Amino acid sequence: MNLVCMLVLTLMKLHQSPVVASPLRIQPSQLPIGLSEADQKFAEEYLQHFYGYQPKSDRQKRAADYNEDLDWTTGLCDKVKEMQRFFGLPPDGELNKETLAVMKKPRCGLSDVEPYGSTFRWTKQTVSYRIARINLPFPATKIHKVIKGALNLWSSVSLIKFHKRKRREADIVIAFVSSEHGDRAPFDGKGGILAHAYLPGSGIGGDVHFDTAEEWNLNFTGISLLVVAAHEFGHALGLSHSSDPGSIMYPAYNFAPNFELQLSFDDVKNIQRLYGINSNFPSLLLKKPPPRTPDKCDPDLSFDAVTELQQEVVFFKDRFMWRKHPNFVKTSITLISSLWSDSVPSYLDAVYENGEKNLILFFKGDQYWKLQQLILQEGFPRNISDLGFPNRIKSVDAALHFRNNRYTVFFTGHECWRYNEQQGVMDGSSMLIEQQWPGIPFPVDAAIFYEGFVNFFQGNKQYKYDFVQNRVVSVSSANGLLDCKMEKSNDDTL
Ligand code: ZN
Ligand code: CA
Fold first, then answer.
1. Three-state SS for 82?
2. Catalytic residue among 94, 232, 308, 421
3. Which domains does the chain have, with CATH numbers?
């Protein structure tokens, strides 16, 4: 058990009355700071549904029946950690705001921990499907088109084929339903669970249900029916949830508007493992290869931006980030949107934290975003010229913040700029990187003040710079701060 989790438990134990007056209710004063009773209940139900958590009431009954010591937090803490690991959050076992926010994202109704997978598959090559009930404000033909498009994603890379049936019973029965709908897995109204599916099998096996209470969209805004359908058909074909945030089988809905839906490298590998490889696949691979989720141990890995974030170091790449936390050895990948929702864009140029003012600034192109406590500040994004850059500067390569001296150095091409955080102005005009930071290659990708040195990132290298001696003291691989030697990298051939 780690420190934080232990601390929460200890605090809770201290608050619990030694005389078992009313052990069946946790008083609000006993909850972790900032956690309401409703949130506590929500989190328990979430963990029960998706992580096999045994709820408090069940265990209380057990404890009463068997005269066992009741410590409701132990099970909860472990389940919170399991969920945090799945979503790439620091696994401290604490039901903090951030963890709750991830729990509250719209998602698929299937569990994240069931040991399902390769044992479930259709043994026939052609699977029939039927759209039984459509209860959405769109023409049926459009729904049929979206469903076909979602099935095509899977059949274009593997040997599975789909055959549409109009009336007769089908293997995959698709229905748009709400609340209780006859399978003892009721939907929950708008938000929360978006849809669920049954693994291949007879009867209800392979069936897919969508919650009609959602605001479905047929294009790529809001909750996209195509995206959710593609995910659910993955289950209907036998795939389980993936903790790879680039996979279509990731359980939470995490797509920015107007993205381009494609099966990921892993999705393709997994469906081909179940159903074989489509003969058209090699040409598809050449034309439009499935995107790979960046691998922290890839020797060619480079970063878009790197920043301090309280006690963590955060590495940004495309839509993803890794959060290096001092208390945890393992650094997991997660989505930028898992922490900041859609407030900040992906494919960033630079990021820095002004810890004193509790602000975090994101840069992309000629715009920047300012957030406080995960909330985008009013009037943002703004143009970077507001910070004092001349109009000729169209983007920032990297931002390096010095907490103690309260200034930030911006890097643009071969130049650097010093921004005075206290006065909110640029200190004079630009300087040359080769004069200010001799030995640093430019343009730089990212820069961070770390353990007394400045680490500059360019391509797959990082340069440790001693700014007392004014020189580079070592060069190593860009991912050197991520825990790469700990893990064996996955098989990466298709
Ligand atoms: Zn799912
Ligand atoms: Ca719902």
1. helix
2. 232
3. 3-104 (1.10.101.10), 126-287 (3.40.390.10), 305-482 (2.110.10.10)
